[in-house]
């Protein structure tokens, strides 16, 4: 029974790591989009 609990913890921590990485990627992409929109606004003015 103890192995089942530790296995679940391992899976959930792995999923948590993947989720954190995904959130970080989305954050970086969003920042890049905002930056490029800002640059394009300056160029067109």
Automatic annotation (TrEMBL):
Source organism of this protein record: Helianthus annuus (Common sunflower)
Main location: membrane
Pfam families in the cross-refs: DVL
Compartment(s) where it occurs, according to its Swiss-Prot or TrEMBL record: Cell membrane
Transmembrane domains' residue ranges: none
Family: Belongs to the DVL/RTFL small polypeptides family.
Name of the featured protein: DVL
Lineage: Eukaryota, Viridiplantae, Streptophyta, Embryophyta, Tracheophyta
Cellular component, GO, one term: plasma membrane
Keyword terms: Cell membrane, Developmental protein, Membrane, Transmembrane, Transmembrane helix
Membrane topology: Single-pass membrane protein
A biological process from GO: shoot system development
Alphabetical list of InterPro entries matching this protein: DVL, DVL/RTFL_small_peptides
Keyword Cell membrane: yes
């Amino acid at each position: 029974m103890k192995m089942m609990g530790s296995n679940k913890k391992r899976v959930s921590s792995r999923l948590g790591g993947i989720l954190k990485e995904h959130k970080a990627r989305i954050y970086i992409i969003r920042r890049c989009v905002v930056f490029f929109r800002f640059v394009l606004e300056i160029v067109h003015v």
